[in-house]
Amino acid sequence: MLIDTHQRIHNYLRISLTDACNFRCFYCMPEEEVEVTPQSKLMSADEILAIAKTFVSLGVNKIRLTGGEPLVRKDFADIVLSLAKLPVKLTLTTNGVLLNRYTDLLQEAGIHSVNVSLDTLNPYKFLALTKRDQFAQVKQNIDTLINKGFSVKVNVVTLKGINTQEINDFVEWTREAPVHVRFIEFMPFDRNQWNAEKVFTYHQILEVIREQYDCIKLPDAQHDTTKKYMVTGHVGTFAVISTMTAPFCSSCNRLRLTADGKMKNCLFSKTESDLLSAYRRGEDLEPLIRENLALKEKGLGGQLLPDFTQIDTTELANRSMISIGG
User: Is pTM beyond 0.70 here?
Assistant: First the structure.
């Protein structure tokens, strides 16, 4: 069992398969040209499986595959099918554009829940945000997943002045579709143009929704990162991930493994442990994993301030979001 110094049990591992992506969302990656990690420094499919097995032996029972964009890996199918043999709940986060190629594979692997990042329902704004004219394909793929019985969560990074006027458009989507929309407060990462004025808060999001809808609070599970709601009469739900204004660190059960094999104990942690190099040297990974977990801060990587308006991004030590994994 993996327990940190704050007595939190960790049973959830997020594995980034790549730091490459076929979209170019500014809040995820630096504005300048991104250098993708060379193949030799990425975990291979066999290495991903071997390192995952170590975490599973220590109590991990849920694994989420992330990126970059995980579906751009040519060996994605091999990775999924090998991890599907482990005694874990396997899930996926994707930008959705390639899902049509892998729907049958996901069903074969027993993946029933997929998170899709989609920050706008406007095709022109989608192009502006992602630099790719692929809205129709993403929306079609989401609809296909829903029709095939997948649980689909749509992640919406809520950016003041950019897509906040679409909040209720997303909520309206939940009227007839069993989709789970999750509004995410804008978070600071390396060179992602974050500033406090762009943050649209949990309470502001609810205020906008309540102007148009009657909604009820739903119960949150022990390790939920979301505050869940439902509009009366709708078949879907919505939620808010309130990292900046109402963090959920006290019940955190998540660990992260970057595409280049570094373990991070928090999305905002300064420290990393190089599991991949240790594995390639034939070393036992358990001591490294436990040592890394012992360094986990009580909240927000020990870096972000409770008052997000006082955060100085020049003082933060972290990677870009795309190199951490969503």
Answer: yes
